[in-house]
Amino acid sequence: MRVSMTTSAGHAGRPNEDFVGAVPGAVVLLDGAGIPGTGSICAHGVAWYTHRLGGALLGRLSRDDGRDLVSLLAAAIDEIAAAHRDTCDITDPASPQATVAIVRAHRGRLDHLLLADSFLLLDQVRGGPQVVTDAREATSRRVCSAPLDGAVAGTPEYDRVRESCVQALRAHRNQPGGYWIAKDDPYAAEEAVTGSRTLDDLHGLALLSNGASRIVSPYGLTDWAGVRDLLASDGPAEVVRRVRRAEAGFGAGPDAPVPDDATVVHCAELARWELGDGSGPASGR
User: Mind listing the pLDDT tens digit for each residue in 189-211?
Assistant: First the structure.
């Protein structure tokens, strides 16, 4: 197995709210979400949540006890919820939460789980790259933001409509017909996008947080086949570097995108990738 990874905070002086880690046979990537300035709701913050949840997942994955990924995620969500339920209002919509992406090699197969909008890029032996994601958050966001069409940014009316859109999106979170994310309810794991395929069908794979996936959309710097090739030639750091260069090119105007934490992990030599295969530790770039 060969694993390389890069993570970059979106803002200097603020903690990186992404998490990435690997154990033999498995990789976890989380993209934290929450609202700044909500310390009265949760004193720990989003980075604490993603790091604790990511660590709990890696610990469970390393045990190789045969449990499916949904069960592992549900148990980890429940563990972290219990860790701050007595001190924080974890049911508040603004309390810390995270997208989750997990891949695990087991008995010659690659199992995956995706909850909310991270991306799994599969480099297939036959055919082009396959991209797997959970698109429900993006769909909910488009629906909830529709009232903003035609509104003039910077006006009181725009601000009023935007706030109502934000409230509508929160109401869709972890609800049937909306989207699902790791937060306080272990049931969210049951709603994850999951799948499995043989390792022999794959040359490699990559996981990208939403901030890193901007290299494809909305920036349009390359397509997913281009991301695959870039990872093979230059590694995850180059993907993040190009995203940051694109963001810098927008300048500081009102239409400039807000930089996001960006994380990429690339896995190769999958045919040898099994829990406890002794093929060595992950390498960082």
Answer: 999 999 999 999 999 999 999 99
H-run or E-run covering 46: helix 46-63
Same domain, 125 and 145: no
**For the chain, what is the domain count?**
2
What predicted TM-score, i.e. pTM, was given to this entire model?
A: 0.91
Q: Could you tell me where the beta strands, DSSP code E, fall in the chain? A: 2-8, 18-23, 26-33, 97-106, 109-115, 119-124, 130-133, 193-198, 202-208, 262-268, 283-284
Q: Residue 32: what residue type?
A: G
pLDDT at 284 over 50: no
Q: What is the pLDDT, as a whole number, of residue 275?
A: 53
Domain span including residue 16: 2-134+180-284
96 and 190 share a domain?
Answer: yes
> In the structure encoding, which two tokens stand for residue 189, read together?
């794991």
Q: Which of 148, 177, 206 is the last residue of a domain?
A: 177
For residues 108 and 168, membership in a common domain is answered with: no
pLDDT band at 36 (very low <50, low <70, confident <90, very high): low
